[in-house]
Amino acid sequence: AHILLDQVYAYDQGFNALEAMARGIVVFTGAEKEWLDYYGLMEDTIAINALPNAKAIAEKLIWLIDNPDKIKTISKNARAFVEKEHHYITLASKYVETWNAN
After folding, report:
1. For the chain, the helix, strand and coil percentages under 3-state DSSP, each to the nearest 5
2. Buried b (16+ CB within 10 A) or exposed e, 8-37
């Protein structure tokens, strides 16, 4: 699959979304403004914000189908994002750093 529809009531991604993004799959999930601002991202560049609105989801799916280059770009960006922000060694180091600071 090139696209995964995940959750619609979230500000951020859960495990399923991150796993799919790591595989280069475009994910419809929590990608709210707060998340975008925290990571300094632009809308629809890493993940698609999924709202509980079937029409909005359908329109975004049509946009992707009509623009297959966007699927490729978002896929690459999603993979790079997970490697940068959610790499297991980086996260483990942050846990150890936090543990040692306390």
Report:
1. 60, 10, 30
2. bebebbeeebbebbeebbbbbbbbbeebbe
CB 19 within 8 A of CB 32: no
pTM: 0.88
Amino acid code (one letter) for 22: A
| Dist CA 96 CA 67 (whole Å) | 43
Residues of the chain with pLDDT under 70: none
- Distance of alpha carbon 23 from alpha carbon 81, whole angstroms: 11
Domain boundaries, the chain: 3-101
